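Hey, I'm writing a tutorial for new members on how sequence and structure tokens pair up, and I'd like a real worked example in the thread rather than a made-up one. If someone can provide the structure for the chain below, I'll link this post from the tutorial.
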Amino acid sequence: DTVSEVLNTLLLKWPTQGRGLHIVLGSDWVQFAQIEPPLDARQRLDLEAAAAMQLQKMLDSTAADTASVCEPWLDAPYLGCAMQRPLLAVLTEVAAARRMPLCGVVPEFSLVWNHWCKALRRGEWLGVYTRHGWTLGVVAHGRLQAVRHRRGAADTAAWQDAPLSQEALRCHVQEPSGLAVCGSVPPSWASAGRGVVNRRVLGEAADALAVLGVLP
């Protein structure tokens, strides 16, 4: 009910009827997971089912309560993403009530990733700083392997090298040769001895509004 009320109030500010609606969800609304392809998988439906089951387990929910998508691979781990189906239903109802075609519902990290992925160098992972915390995009074999989000201040020990090594172990990939970051990077990064992984700043665009050019 709260989501419906906020979204309707927001849309009342503009003449929206008949216009397409694109919805971007922050990290609190979605769950990413690295999916291992089943050994007996033979087609895309098998891989999608495996992703749905694992994401439902992570969210402690049922198929009726979970909406999931993935980009499956038969011979390598792939990334899955899920959201609560009641939330999707609310968004769909608001769009229908205002006669706005719902063009898509996507995670905010997807927009940021698509904006910066071509700027990554070989062996680099992507780090995203926002006022809510930070998100890490684990990369291997030229593809995004996992997405990890943590709340709290960005300038903490969480961004030191140890968690990067831990994520590499969890995802069964090599440790990154570097970390390319975007957003409000802590000034202390300029200090000496701030970890051994090479870090470089891509730019300030770290959320949907900045990537889409809605706000400076």
